């Protein structure tokens, strides 16, 4: 059985979502960020960067949500949640995963870092403005890549949709406009479509059940 190390309302929900989509049982181990458990030597032995999520497997531990969900899909959902390795469709999947983590997510993460994640003395107010500007610049690119497709890779729901869905939910939670005043309505419709999946709802509820009081 897999063990997911995570904390509610973080990237660990991506892995929980993937596990739910694949119908895989897993144990959830809370890493209490507010108590600094991620900085403990015990957790650093699991995740040297002190970050979540991490996934314990019978073969070892994996970190980085994009790598984890890709591993799970290849191991348990080939042809259903991820294209065949070596195919053009797989190359487009990898292209989208890199775009999502390197481009679409970064402004939101920068906004979070300079709002609450970094120590107060390291936060820069102007960086929040830059992050919002960057998000407004990159969202139309994603809108163009998505077009009128049902999912980011076409008609197949893939692990890239899990990353995209979570990033857009994170953007909305950060009070960023994912419609850009009607210019990217296809993105808003897409977000509603993927975030209404039962597996996402189950993953969200399971994580929130571990939220410390």
Report on this model:
This protein is of the alpha+beta class and 213 residues long. It folds into 2 domains: 2-78 and 199-208, Glutaredoxin (3-Layer(aba) Sandwich), CATH 3.40.30.10; 88-197, Glutathione S-transferase Yfyf (Class Pi), Chain A, domain 2, CATH 1.20.1050. Helices cover 54% and strands 8% of the residues. It starts with a strand and ends in a 5-residue tail after the last helix. The mean pLDDT is 97.
Query: Helix amount, in percent?
Result: 40-55%
- What's the total count of β strands? 4
Average of the residue pLDDT scores: 97
Global geometry = globular
The name of the CATH architecture of the largest domain is Up-down Bundle
Family: Belongs to the GST superfamily.
Protein name: Glutathione S-transferase
GO molecular function: transferase activity
Pfam families: GST_C (PF00043), GST_N (PF02798)
Summarize the structure.
Residues 1-80 form the GST N-terminal domain. The protein contains eight helices and four strands.
Present the secondary structure layout.
Layout (H helix, E strand, L loop, with lengths): L1 E5 L5 H11 L3 E5 L10 H4 L9 E4 L2 E4 L1 H12 L11 H30 L7 H22 L12 H15 L11 H11 L2 H11 L5
Parallel strand pairs: 1-2
Antiparallel strand pairs: 1-3, 3-4
Helix pairs in contact: 1-3, 1-6, 1-8, 4-5, 4-6, 6-7
């Amino acid at each position: 059985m897999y063990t997911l190390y995570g904390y509610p309302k973080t990237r660990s929900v991506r892995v929980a979502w993937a596990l739910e989509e694949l119908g895989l049982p897993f144990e959830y181990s809370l890493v209490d960020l507010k108590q600094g458990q991620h900085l403990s030597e015990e957790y650093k032995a699991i995740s040297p960067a002190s970050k979540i999520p991490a996934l314990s497997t019978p073969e070892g531990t994996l970190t980085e949500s994009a790598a984890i969900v890709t591993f799970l899909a290849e191991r348990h959902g080939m042809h259903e949640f991820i294209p065949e390795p070596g195919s053009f469709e797989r190359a487009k999947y990898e292209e989208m995963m890199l775009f999502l983590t390197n481009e679409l997510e970064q402004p939101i993460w920068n906004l979070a870092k300079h709002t609450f994640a970094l120590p107060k003395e390291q936060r820069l107010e102007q960086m929040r403005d830059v992050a919002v500007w960057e998000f407004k610049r990159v969202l139309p690119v994603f809108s163009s890549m998505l077009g009128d497709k049902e999912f980011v890779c076409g008609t197949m729901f893939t692990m890239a949709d899990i990353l995209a869905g979570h990033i857009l939910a994170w953007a909305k939670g950060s009070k960023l406009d994912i419609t850009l005043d009607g210019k990217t309505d296809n993105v808003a419709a897409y977000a509603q479509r993927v975030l209404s999946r039962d597996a996402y709802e189950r993953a969200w509820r399971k994580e929130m059940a571990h939220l410390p009081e």
